[in-house]
Amino acid sequence: RGTIDALSAADAARALGIRVFTVGVGSDGVAPVPIGSAPAGFEYAELPVGLDEELLREIATRTGGEYFRATDADALA
Description:
Blueprint lengths: L5 H10 L6 E4 L3 E10 L2 E9 L3 H11 L3 E4 L2 H4 L1
Parallel strand pairs: 1-4
Antiparallel strand pairs: 2-3
């Protein structure tokens, strides 16, 4: 996140000769996401989660890198 969008950042990286290798980590579905603080810690809600794999692939493609998908620790290794 930031003030520059991901594809503009990818274009800047390409202009500087930087290859970006993107990794999609996690799974689609629902997950506990912190939504605020509570006296005993954080308050969580089950919210939909997912990856923008199309964007991750495009960033890698624009910079000459590669996209990898990791759905668990073994796949990440």
